[in-house]
Amino acid sequence: MEKLQIEVTEGGERIDKFLSREMPDFSRSYIQKLIKEGKVCSGGEPVRSSYKVREGEEIQVFLPEAREPEILPENIPLDILYEDEDILVVNKPKGMVVHPAAGHYSGTLVNALLYHCRDSLSGINGVLRPGIVHRIDMDTTGSLLVCKNDRAHRILAEQLKEHSIKRVYHAIVHGVIREEEGTVDIPIGRHPVDRKKMSTRTKNGRRAVTHYRVLERFRNYTYIACRLETGRTHQIRVHMAHIGHPLLGDRVYGPQKCPFSLEGQTLHAKTLGIVHPSTGEYMEFDAPIPEYFEKLLTKLRHIS
Q1: Which residues of 35-55 are buried (b: 16+ CB within 10 A; e: fewer)?
Q2: Which of 105, 166, 234, 266 fits a disulfide with 273 by CB distance 3.0 to 4.6 angstroms?
Q3: Cβ neighbours of residue 286 closer than 8 Å, sequence gap 6 or more
């Protein structure tokens, strides 16, 4: 069993929230499970879930030995935009995690792909991410590319590295953007304090470029299309927040209060363009705007 020792520099925070920030690779639910099982201690004594950390104390976390979990096929319906013997393009729904991770070993896109494709998925990214070339956030919807063999995976991963894959997202942001289009070219890296977040205020950021274009303006909001030149984690969410226009519904990088009933950010991976790994032909796929997004646009048009 692995033992972690984490020093508290600022007290008053509940233990699960504190550990979620200090251990960004683990989900909050997994940390809460460790607390319930008595694997989180202070001064050698297990703490309760209501425990609040104190400045200067040291928290011990006992992690069970890491095992590569068995990822099982699950009969989860997939909205398939395109499929052949090399690739699969899926329209991912809101709320679905792309690949298994701590706290999410079922109900993911990978579980669904294992059922749909059987043994026809590339193995380059290992058992937890078979076929996955790129990913989108849990609450982001839209086009996602999956490879069914290693050859296709290598070719398309190279296209992704060279930034030759076309990726256009649609989003609704806070505020009215006055210019018709623009580019945000600002490095993004891990947030210096909150390790679950990304930030433009970091010394170790990597170059990130987002091109945006206004599609429609409303009272207090703007509907935009964003084309990714690079593909950093949370790139559109971080860049739009940086220029003062965070995504509507994004409580991580935007306002905590949302005037609409939303589950996460209004972000949809609409268009995906690739050069096919076998034919060499350019192909473009389009994921229809989800129903919740269309209803929100209709509501914004009505109140503007």
Answers
A1: beeebbbbeeeebeeebebee
A2: 166
A3: 81, 143, 270, 271
For the chain, percent of residues with pLDDT exceeding 70? 98
Q: What is the pLDDT of residue 103?
A: 65
Other beta carbons within 10 angstroms of residue 231's beta carbon come to 17
137 is catalytic: yes
Within 8 A by CB and 6+ apart from 3, the residues are: 60, 61, 62, 63
Name the token pair of 67.
Answer: 């095992």
- pLDDT over threshold 70, residue 281: yes
Q: CB–CB of 76/36 below 8 Å? A: no
Flag the least confident range among 18-32, 82-96, 175-189.
18-32
pLDDT band at 102 (very low <50, low <70, confident <90, very high): low
Other CB atoms within a 10 A radius of the CB of residue 130 amount to 23
CA atoms within 13 Å, Cβ hemisphere of 273: 13
